[in-house]
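Feature request, filed as a ticket because there's no other form

It would be nice if the structure record came with a short human-readable summary line next to the tokens. Right now we just get the raw output. Example of a typical job, pasted below so the devs can see what we mean:
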Amino acid sequence: MRENAIDVRLPAGTPEPPANERPMIEQATAEPSSFGLSRGPGALRTTLLMARVTFREAARRKILWIAMLAGVAFLAFFWTALHFVLKHKTQQTSAVDFREGMVMMTMMVLYAGSMMTSLMAVLTSCDTLSGEIASGTIHAIATKPVERWCLVLGKWVGFVGMLTLYVLLIEGGSILISWLESGYRPPHGLAVLSLIWLQALVLLGVTMAASTRFSSLTSGAVSLGLYGLAFVGGWIEQFGSLQHVKACINLGILSSLIMPSDALWRRAAFKFQPPLLGTVGVTPFSGTLVPSNAMVVYAAFYALLVILLAQILFSRRDL
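Raw output as currently delivered:
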């Protein structure tokens, strides 16, 4: 008999029941599923249910709507600025200078947008597990027969959906506005969006893993601290490349292995550049050393491993 089944069999020594009552007793002592008791939702159903609850909770707490309004305001400022830049363009501006100017301006906006997306990933998820554990809300759902790892995975899926919409709004909207205003479509737009999306997933997984053990503020501090470490490490690596300091290059690579967020952005910036500017490799947003495709694969495995770690830590935590 399973541990969550109810033993309703008659004890030994009980007199034989009347013949007209035997069918009812046999039905009661059968398997729970034979008389309609639910064995609980399956893993897929639980995951999708938690994803929907997470999405609706973000909307109820107005986090989703405020983030969307901030994104719309961000795009409106960029569109206005780009309109006036094009309005004051002179006839002496060559096609190459015009194209590179548009790409550089759009890259600046994408850089700011990637930071907004990263902050969105951290701030929306740092309270999702630790806050419910601290308030006791988690006890209402983290009970048998629901698996704990399904709860973590469902919340992660819900946040992934929100971040996907946010990347499409901020980064996708920036590229679209630049294309509509200037008529120039930057290369590798889909690859750039995918890399920034992966950057957000890395930070999301790290934040959720931290929130299984730490408080909400501490979880956010851990993620933002690692994000800052990767940012500084990226600049150290570029400085080491320019000055031919091998130790600085190695420190930068080490920081990318600890947190690959900055490496993903530098790869996205390199893909976004036009061929001529990308060959030169001298812009404020992409240096001489460009992360390889192997680093992108590493970052993808990193994002999967941290969410698996979050599921394991939450499953073993004493609530």
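Something like this underneath would help us a lot:
Residues 44-86+93-316 form one domain.
Residues 148-182 form the longest helix (35 residues).
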